[in-house]
Amino acid sequence: EEPLVESGGGLVQPGGSLKLSCAASGFQIRDVYMSWVRSAPGKQPQWVAGMSSDGGTVYYTESVKGRFIISREESNEIVSLQMNDLKPEDSAVYYCNANVGGINYWGQGTQVTVAS
Which of 12, 79, 99, 103 has its CA 20 to 30 A from that of 116? Predict the structure, then answer.
């Protein structure tokens, strides 16, 4: 079983919303720092959002502040990324990341395309 599995990507018009989910297995999300990273063709991968292991602190890259919200459901071991007011420049493959005992785990990614 893969440790991280993302879902929720798709095609959306500018100004629309999507919610990405990352299902974790093999560890508990309350014990680790979780984050979302995106990768677009021709661009360097960009860290987008993160949540501390205790869930008390969240972090966002400047370009998504006020539009994206990272959250988690400990009972279901899911970390989500609510994305609002999407822009074409948000188009990318979004990856979930977990640092477990110093080892970085990545999901397979989910494609987000923002276009008219």
Answer: 79
How far is Cα 84 from Cα 98, in angstroms, rounded to an integer?
Answer: 23
| Beta-strand relationship, 110-114 and 10-12 | parallel
> Hey, what are 15's tokens?
């100004």
In the chain, which stretches have pLDDT less than 70? Answer: none
Beta strands 68-73; 58-60: pairing state = unpaired
Q: Which of 62, 69, 99 shows the shortest CA–CA distance to 83?
A: 69
3-state secondary structure of 16: coil
Return the amino acid letter for 46: Q
Q: What number of residues does the chain have?
A: 116
Coarse DSSP helix, strand, coil percentages of the chain, rounded to the nearest 5 percent:
10, 50, 40
